[in-house]
Every structure is written in C-alpha cells, then in structure tokens.
Amino acid sequence: xxxxxxxxxxxxxxxxxxxxxxxxxHIQNIGGAARQAGPTSNYSPTLPFLLPAxxxxxxxxxxxxxPPPQPARKKPAGPPPPPSWVSHSHPVDAxxxxxxxxxxxxxxxxxxxxxxxxxxxxxxxxxDLPTLVDWCLLSLLDPFDAEAISELPAHLRQxxxxxxxxxxxxxxxxxxxxxxxxxxxxxxxxxxxxxETYGAMKGLLHALHRAGEAPLPEESWDTPMHLLAAPxxxxxxTLVLVKTPLPSLTLLPRTLTHLSLVxxxxxxxxxxxxxxxxxxxxxxxxxxxxxGIEWSFFGTLxxxxxxxxxxARLIPARQEGGRAG
Length: 325
Prior knowledge:
By secondary structure, the protein is of the alpha/beta class.
C-alpha cells in the first residue's frame, strides 16, 4: 500500500515538473516575440478618437524629413548676451494672411501675441502644451457652438477667446457670443484681430462709454431697489488690437491697465501722443509697427503720467526698405 502511494506521488511530481517547463518555454516565446515586434500601442494617444483635432496639432501629423546633423557652433568668449537681446521666435513672412487657418498664419499670430499674453493680469505662456481643458474648448470652435459657449463661466470664455486668437480667429458675431449681452463674458479682456471685427469692438466701447457717463440713481427712501441693485457693465482692463484701426481715444476707458497695439492705424498723430493722458493707469503697453509711428514719436510721450507703468515694448513702423525706422 505504501509502495503504491509513493509511485502515485512520483507521477504527480513529474506532471508538475513538465507543466512548469512548458510554462517557462511559453513565457520565453512570448518575450522573444515582443522584442522582435518592437514598440506596441503603449504610447498611442489617450484622448478620445472622436475629439476634433483643430489646427493646433496639424503639424504634428505631418512627417517631416530629418535634417542632417549640424556641427556644434562655438560660443564666443565673454559673458552671454542679456535676455532682451535674444530672440526666441522665427520671423514670419509679412505677407501672411493674419486670419487664415494655416500653420504659417498660426505662427504669425503666436509671434504677434506672445509678448502681451505673458503679461496679462492672468498670464498665459503660448509655448505651454495645451491642457485637456484647452482641447475641450477648442472643440467648441469648429463648428462654433454658441449655446455651449454662452453657458461657460467667464474665466473659461476668456481662455477660449485667447485660444481662438491663436488657432481660429473669431468673427464679429462669435465675439459677441463670447462677450455676452452684458459684455462680462471674458472678464474685462478684449482681443481683436483684423478689420472684420472692428465693428464689434466699437460697439463694445460705445456701450462702456455710455455706461460710464450715465448718472447713478440717487439713493433715497423712495428709490426702487431694482435701480440701486442694477448691475454695472464690467471694468475693461485689457485691450489687444492686431491689424485694426484704433478708435477715438475718447472711447477708450480710463480703466485700461494692459494695452497692445500691433500693426494698428491711428486717426491722427496727436491722438497717439495723448495716450498717457487718456489712459493713466497703464501697467504694460506694447506699440509695435503701427502706421506712422517712428522712433521720434516715443520721445514725445509724457511718460511721467504713467506712474504705474511696469514695462513697455516699442517697435517703430517698418520703412519701405523693410527695416524699422
């Protein structure tokens, strides 16, 4: 009886040993096949495949030839140049269409808006990788979903307008949707690109001007509560204009703290010289290649009126030879 039990145990041990050997060979075969197959889909995109892909990622899908390696350039002796001398952007053809949905136009808008976007009350670095929220907001632009956008809170609509300024410029009617009926949709920030949206900006400035001149109701015992509690139009603190006429300075609210004028046109040089008097609260100002603005103009500004000024970027208009004046 004991002999039979020992034979049965030996048979079980043999079966277990064979099973372990087969399992080990199976694992080795799988590992060898995986090494020969190369990388799998572990690094495939994790976003939903139905999410629209805006122009933001257009260049990522284009297979570009690998440039030949360049020999390392020897650095000159001495200390490095100051940061203000170093340009991190590549020049874009001046004839590029500002509003086109092309990669070249997108780079042009990035170059024109990079300075002021980094210095807004809520700064945004254009070079940062887009977040999942950014992708979701961009998906509302093509096609333009007015109903969904009108329900977004102000900080998301503000972010949406900034993203659109880079990747898909908004039309006049689309801007009005983002601003909302009471112009509070973007939190006191207005970004205008091109002459096509000039009418929307002018309507906004006229509304703010009328609201500023309207007398406040006198508070007395018989004043209706709905008049005392009437919401006021928001304070406009940021105005960014690119390739658009500058409206009359009498329309610009004195509450502006951030102003960027890129390739704009003034109605008169006297109007331009009155900027410090009209906008005394300016903290950051950019005047870049505006028509008729030369180096001598910057010396005529009364800089002492801008007591809160933190920084400025001043680039005169290009002359016919292509160089700045």
